[in-house]
Amino acid sequence: MWNTWFLITVFGSPELWMSIAGALVFFYFLFRKRLPHRLQMRRFLWVFVISLLLVFGFVILLKDTTQIPRPCEPENLYCLNDYSFPSGHSAGIFVFFTSFFIFAKR
User: Fold this and answer.
1) CA distances from 23 to 40, 43, 66, 87 (A)
2) What is the pLDDT of residue 42?
3) Distance from C-alpha of 93 to C-alpha of 9, rounded to nearest angstrom
4) How many C-alpha atoms does 13 have within 13 Å on its Cβ side?
């Protein structure tokens, strides 16, 4: 049986977003000759990957600086053993959608 909150947590994890960025870069280099908007896609990838690296570095720095503990209960098996603020999940999703909407056609 799947734990819904665990799946939501995995969907927002920084590791998943970095994997998505790596996969997008890989597929860009694999299929770049066939892409109709190569230049726009390359610009999007630059902005997306660099923004992810900067934002996640900033999130790690802030987590280590503030050291606010997670509000975990003992019966929660999926609670991570790190700090809670700021949210890496929110940061990753924000970077993706901001990068996407900057380059999406109107």
Assistant:
1) 17, 16, 32, 23
2) 84
3) 12
4) 14
SS3 83: strand
Centre a 10 Å sphere on the Cβ of residue 51 and count the other Cβ atoms it contains.
19
Residue 49: CB partners within 8 Å, gap ≥ 6? 21, 25
pTM: 0.68
- In this structure, which amino acid lies at residue 105? K
DSSP calls for 27-77 = HHHHHGGG-TTHHHHHHHHHHHHHHHHHHHHHHHHHHHHH-PBP---TT-T
Kindly calculate the radius of gyration of the chain based on its CA atoms and give it in whole angstroms: 17
Q: What percent of the chain has pLDDT over 70?
A: 82
Q: For residue range 11-25, what is the model confidence (pLDDT) as tens digits?
A: 777 788 888 889 988
